């Protein structure tokens, strides 16, 4: 049974989860105007992982074993290098932050499909959500934004699939407990992104603007550390379905920020796709309210 949380902390944790994680797509768009995409994502996770790892070790948390490091490396590459890195590169190629957020909202659909590999049972309601979500993906790809950037469209959908695969696979692996797993995954995922940045020939032609530096700091401290800590707090004090409700809220926050501050435009097809995808995510989440979830997948944006 979850323990009774302190009300103000609970409100603050939900605000961090909804607003900070929802805003990261918009902040990534600002960041890639100054930074090469893989360099931005790599620095973000390597710095955040280093700070979190050092803090946890100072608090006496054991370091991961060799086996756990291998597991963290696999999941870190899937979640962060391919998942978040794919989103960052897609936005660099011109995918609007609002549309990227909508595409990533399909992660629960992919997670259910990958869950079949490990024999996870899927209810009729969840199958309905999967089918509805596939319709939403189709509508999203009919919109002008993804059609204008085919490479970005492929990257953002592969990012969602990679995140889902990593989330489901992590249930089968020996990972450190608590935040140490995230710290180790960020260290490996960030290092792989920096390696990819170097091998792909990314170059920082000019020094980042103040907005670019602010984006890196925001994504590192708030997006990766503060919001994730809030997520861990909620997992201990509320039902899993409530803790994962960010999947419904983040795309809406991202759309509102993109339209209001970045001049992004959402076409009719994309607007309908948003309603369809969010409806699908709600359908998939309903069974969580009826029974406890065995494991809750995490998210970094």
The general outline is globular
- Average residue-wise pLDDT: 84
Uncertain stretches: 293-298
Total E-strand runs: 0
Structural class: mainly alpha
**Radius of gyration from the alpha-carbon trace, in angstroms:** 18 Å
Strand content: under 5%
Order of helices and strands: HHHHHHHHHHHHH
Structure annotation, total helices: 13
Helix content: over 70%
Main sheet characteristics: none
| N-to-C span | 29 Å
Description of the structure:
The chain is mostly helical and 301 residues long. 75% of the residues lie in helices and 0% in strands. It contains 13 helices and no strands. The longest helix has 28 residues, at 210-237. It is globular, with a radius of gyration of 18 Å.
Question: What does the secondary structure layout of this molecule look like, with pairings?
Answer:
Elements: H1 7-31, H2 37-58, H3 66-92, H4 97-104, H5 107-115, H6 124-142, H7 144-148, H8 150-169, H9 179-199, H10 210-237, H11 240-243, H12 246-261, H13 268-290
Helix pairs in contact: 1-4, 1-10, 1-12, 2-3, 2-9, 2-10, 3-8, 3-9, 4-12, 5-6, 5-8, 6-13, 12-13
Could you write a compact summary of the structure shown?
The chain has 301 residues and is mainly α. It has helices at 7-31, 37-58, 66-92, 97-104, 107-115, 124-142, 144-148, 150-169, 179-199, 210-237, 240-243, 246-261, 268-290.
